[in-house]
Amino acid sequence: MSEYSLGKRMLAELIGTYLLVFLGAGSVITFASTLGFESPSASLFAIGFTFAVAIAVAIYTLGHVSGCHINPAVTVGLAVIKRFPLNEVVPYIAAQLAGAVLASATHLAIYGVGVAQKVSFGVTLPGAIIGNSAPIACLNEIVMTFMLMWAIMGIAVSGKSAPGWAGWGIGLIVGALIWWGGPISGTSLNPARTFGPAIMSGVWTAHWVYWVGPIIGAVIAAVIYEYIFIREKS
Amino acid sequence: MKCYICATEGKDTDAVAICIVCGMGVCMEHLVREEVEVWEGGYPFPSKKLSKTIPRILCQPCYTAYKG
Ligand SMILES: [Zn+2]
Ligand SMILES: [Zn+2]
Fold first, then answer.
1. Which range marks the domain in which residue A223 is found?
2. For residue A96, which of A17, A42, A64, A87 is within the disulfide window of CB 3.0 to 4.6 Å?
3. Is A150 inside a domain boundary?
4. Ligand 2 centre and the CA of B31: distance in Å?
5. Residue A140 forms part of a structural domain
């Protein structure tokens, strides 16, 4: 058995995460500037759908190359259940972070600092409706990333679902989580997706939430699905 | 089974294979056998190429239709 070289797979993770952050975090900047302040619901819907499309395209184009994790929490979750080699976790995460930072850097070039910084380059933050509480935002990110990883396990890893649906299925789960959870914790689900905008905006408020929450949620979902529904069929 | 192409030429040759596309029986002279790389798996895992190739047999008309 042979597969794409680690270098090619890292390039795929970099490009996939770039796509996600360029379109996803970029949609926060665009829609907040155009629809946002008059109609926040329309803006939220547009942002969620843009993320869904970005994820679907990334999965359909890069899924077979690198696995298209484009998210350190997904890489860690798969490594914990021994479906991804431990020695490739750090290279994958490095590639994902690099893609995210490059995407946010492109936002600086396109929007200029004035427009992009108005929404801190689309960084995720604990929302006003939870009193900007970092711990509650973390809890929310745990539950939501559990749902994302649950979908990845059920739709793709289990092999029991129609494989052609992975891109849209997982993309739309993220869309729904953004519609529901955007005002609560920003719906990151992905440390890389928050890291890129944080680097460019310098906004590190509650940054830990977007590492700890997604990784815990992804690991719990992966472990439960793997050991209860995949390996224990009796 | 007999080779279909040979039969159309009035010859009576035993077939040694079956074209996977049209299903005709073919003799050694009228078949094309190619080794094909097979990739398995995919999202959320990198797909892997099997270490060995898999043979595929087509009749000459089907091979020509696909490969020109
Ligand atoms: Zn023949
Ligand atoms: Zn044929």
1. 6-230
2. A17
3. yes
4. 9
5. yes
In a domain, A223, yes or no: yes
Locate A7 and state its tokens.
């270098």
Query: What pLDDT score does A32 carry?
Result: 86
- Cβ burial, residue A82 (10 Å; 0-12/13-18/19+): exposed
Residue of A nearest to B42 (CA): A64
Cα–Cα distance measured from residue A40 to residue A74, given in angstroms and rounded to the nearest whole number = 30
CA separation (Å) from A197 to A10, A100, A121, B57?
21, 8, 5, 54
Cα separation values, A94 from A12, A13, A101, Å: 12, 9, 11
* Residue whose structure tokens are 């789960």: A173
The structural domain count of chain A equals 1
pLDDT value at residue A233: 63
**Which whole number is the average pLDDT over B9-38?**
96
Helix H or strand E segment including A152: helix A134-152
Non-local CB neighbours of A37 within 8 Å, separated by 6+ positions: none
Q: In this complex, which of B43, B47, B50 lies closest to A59 when CB atoms are compared?
A: B43
What average pLDDT is seen over chain A?
A: 95
Ranges in chain A, pLDDT < 70? 36-39, 233-234
State the amino acid at position A77 in one-letter form: G
Contact A194, A182 (CB under 8 A): no
Question: Among residues 46-85 of chain A, which lie with CB inside 8 Å of chain B?
Answer: 59, 63-69, 74, 78, 83-84
